[in-house]
Every structure is written in C-alpha cells, then in structure tokens.
Amino acid sequence: MTKSPWTRRHFLTSTSLAAASAAAGTSLSQPAPVRAADGASDAERSVDVLVCGGGPAGMAAAVLAARGGAKVLLVERYGRLGGMAVHARVAPLMGHSASPFVREVLDRIGGVRFDPDRLDLQYAELAEEAGAELLLHAWACQTLLDGNRVAGARFVSKQGMLNVRAKVTVDATGDGDVAFGAGAEYEQGREGDGLLQPMSIMYTVAGLDDARAIYCGSEEQAQKLLIEGRSWEAIVQSAQQAGQLPGNVGVVRTYRTSRPGEAAINATQINYVDGTKVHDLTKAELEGRRQAFQILDFLRKHAPGYENAYIAGMPAVVGVRETRRILGRDYLTRDDLIAGRRRDDAVVRAASFVIDIHNPDGAGQAQGLAERVKPYDIPYGCLVPKTVDGLLVAGRCISGSHEAHASYRVQQIAMALGSAAGAAAALATQSNTLPRDVDVTQVQTALALPS
Ligand SMILES: Cc1cc2nc3c(=O)[nH]c(=O)nc-3n(C[C@H](O)[C@H](O)[C@H](O)COP(=O)(O)OP(=O)(O)OC[C@H]3O[C@@H](n4cnc5c(N)ncnc54)[C@H](O)[C@@H]3O)c2cc1C
C-alpha cells in the first residue's frame, strides 16, 4: 500500500473549495445558478446564525443559538441529521463532560446507546422546538466573504445554488469546509508524516445468541477477554496471520446496541486515505465494505454467539475520523489532556475520553493502548479561527493537535463544543460583536456550566 504524499501541514489560502480542488489538479464544474422560476426566494436567504452540518456539534449549535434568541438556519448535506452516528452508524455516544445540555440530550434520546434509526428525528425535534429552521440536502460548497469576515455560505442543491448570508456562521461540518473555504489556517494529520487516522465502515450484525454473545470494546478488553483459555486479541492476531482477516485489522471491536441479538462492529480499517479527497473516499467505501464481509465470516467462525450472525445495517457512508483541524486563537495539546488542565475561559468543562489513535500506519492502536487523560477544559479560543472573523468552528474540526483531537472528537464532547459555539453565536448577534469579542463568562452562563 502506498502512502499519500501529504506534507505535514497544509496552510491553504484559497477562498473556495472549487478553486482549491482545481489547484490540487481536480477540475470541478460549477453547478447551475438558481433560476427565478425555480423559486427566487430560495436563491438568497439571510439569518442571524447559519450552522453548517447537522451532526452532534451542528445540532447542539443550532439549539443553543435559537434558545439564545437568534434566527437560525441549520443546513445539512444529507437527508438526515445526526452526523457520523446516523450516516456511518457510529455508536455509542462516547466521552463525558460537565455539560447540562449533553445531559438533557442523553435523557431525551434514551442514553448513550441510542436508536440510530430514530436519532435524526430526535435531533430534528430538539432543533425545531428551539425555533431553528432546518434545510436538508444542501451542501456548503463555497464560503461567502466580506473582506476577512465570513458572511455566510453558498450551498448547492437540486435547485441549484443558494446563498445564505449570516451575521455569524458556525462550521460544524467535521471537515471544517466553511473555514477552509475562507482560507483559514489548518493542520491535518500527525506530526512528522501528516498521516491521518484510518477510516472505517462501522456496521451492525444481528442474529446473535444473546446468552453467549461476546462484546469487546477496546484493545485493553481484547487482552482480558478469554475464550476457551485464549485472549480475544490472540484469536484476532492468529486469524490475521492466517489471512482470514485483512492485514491492517488488528482488533475486532464489538459493542452492544439498544436492540436484542445485535452488535455494532468497529473493525474495518482503511489506511492512507484523506476524507477531503473524493478519490480517497471512493476507495475507502469499496475497501471498507469488502472488509466488513470478511470480518463477518471471521466472527461467525470464532466469536461465541455469532454463529448465525448476518449484516443487519450497512452505513450510508464510510466513517471519517480525522481531517482538518482549524487553527484557532487557542490550541489544545496532549499535555493539556494528560495534566487535566483547567481553564478560566473554558466553554467545555471536565471533558474526558482516552487518546484513541487508530493506527494511521498499520494495524491496531498507534500507541499500543489508548492513553488515559484527566478531565480537561476546552477554552473558547479553540473554537475561534485565528485568521478569519464571523466564524466559529465546532465538533471535531476545532483547534488542537492530532493527539488531543483523538480524545475530543467523540460525540458527547463534539456536542458540548457545538452547544458552546451556538451560545456564543447568539451572544455575538445580540451584541453586534464579532465572535472573537464575545464575553466568555456570558457563554459559560448561557451554558449553565459549573465553575
Ligand atoms: C468509524 C468511526 C467510529 C467512531 N466511533 C465512535 C464511537 O463509538 N463513539 C463516539 O462517540 N464517537 C465515535 N467516533 C467519532 C465521532 O463519530 C465523530 O468524531 C463525531 O461524530 C464528530 O461530530 P461532528 O458533529 O464534529 O461531525 P460529524 O458527526 O461528522 O457531523 C458533521 C455533519 O456535517 C455534514 N456536512 C459535512 N460537510 C458538509 C457540507 N459541506 N455542507 C453541509 N453539511 C456538511 C455531515 O453530513 C454531517 O452530518 C467514531 C468515528 C468514526 C469515523
């Protein structure tokens, strides 16, 4: 397998995704403009807060901004809200933080083991009850700029192009598409070689014998779980050496779902691919789905309770763990997480999840085992891009290192980040200030964060 020729850091200054793609050697034609007959009112919109992306971060941003009194439009490229949890069947909702909003959402959706076929509607209800407007099937493809200030985004849809102007835009696309389109500085991949965490097809299998089915959620558990005297880790390794598993599948993680007789499988691994490149995404979709069937055969043969398992749910899209990290006025590091650093300007308090780096360059975990952290704070400056105004980033694309990202990327923390961006966006529109000038203590109050 060849490695992608990334440089360690990409500091792109293009003002549109199309221009950036052209510079990278890919030519994209522009979609046709909306014609008056198609509904001229749809061609131009104006709101207080525009949220791009309807994952946990985007949903939370839309709810908090609307509860803060702003006129909000939440736009999602696919037909359902929920982000990776819904489109890529990623579960459960991991991570912790002291966020009252996340607690409220968990109570509402039935806990961390949610129903993936209902989650999108539950998120939509939360957003609509708060007063946010939703628009699905519209893809942010260009960033609208007034000088150095993001003034909204341009979307491509079945109707053509739609311009949405906004006082504040929240980029919750996971990939930082809007920030990228504004020419914001960003990092991608790990120090040294720029390699990213692998992609995975995460899927569910059903038909399990509940009384005997095994579950193993991490490398640590794989060492401890014994089946007829052999560890699950050893069973996986010998199957891999015998060619029964793909070469870079070092651990087969299985999680309980909310349904009887069903498990979520997190095991496929596609290395050396970049989720911001369509050819890499195409390759990952095909390779990941082939691996899923190979792993099903392995489970039927080696995992107690899985003898009659079948694939019950394939994701709509491949799961992407890591792409752009937009550089902000602050930056979170591994040391902050290991030390459990507290911050006066925190907008997420007591975040906690291991540093979970799926090996960018082979099987298993990059560091052997995931590294433990102490509950750490995330400062507001990690959501405020360093070089562009009018924009907040939320979710997995905030400002931090490859290692820190491997912890804060999980859904409960992404959601807490989104709620902070939404609260700050509402405050900025009310006081007619830029997001970078918002009083952080007011954001903390709006979020009801403990001190
Ligand atoms: C295989 C895999 C397994 C994982 N396992 C877990 C797990 O078990 N538990 C856990 O908590 N986390 C897990 N994660 C991590 C977690 O799912 C993500 O990091 C998290 O969903 C990030 O939230 P987000 O809102 O930032 O982004 P996302 O969930 O990716 O949401 C972004 C949304 O924006 C939309 N979007 C993207 N670009 C555009 C655009 N240009 N215009 C409009 N809309 C756009 C997307 O369609 C999507 O709905 C896993 C991730 C992967 C890939």
- CATH topology type of the largest domain: FAD/NAD(P)-binding domain
What class, by secondary structure content? alpha/beta
Query: From the coordinates shown, what is the CATH architecture of the largest domain?
Result: 3-Layer(bba) Sandwich
The 3D shape can be described as globular
Tell me the number of strands. Answer: 17
The CATH class assignment of the largest domain is Alpha Beta
Biggest sheet layout: 7 strands, mixed
Q: How many structural domains?
A: 2
Mean of all residue-level pLDDT scores: 91
Share in helix: 25-40%
Q: Give start-end ranges of low-pLDDT stretches.
A: 1-41
Question: Which distinct ligands sit in these coordinates?
Answer: flavin-adenine dinucleotide
Quote the distance from N terminus to C terminus. 49 Å
Strand % is 15-25%
Order of helices and strands: HEHEHHHEEEEHEEHEEHEEHEEHEEEHHH
The gist of it:
The chain has 451 residues and is α/β, with parallel strands linked by helices. It has helices spanning 17-23, 56-67, 84-87, 100-109, 119-130, 177-181, 219-224, 232-241, 278-302, 334-339, 402-408, 411-431, 440-446, and strands at 44-52, 72-75, 133-135, 139-146, 149-157, 160-171, 186-188, 203-206, 226-227, 230-231, 253-256, 262-266, 310-313, 324-326, 346-351, 376-379, 391-393.
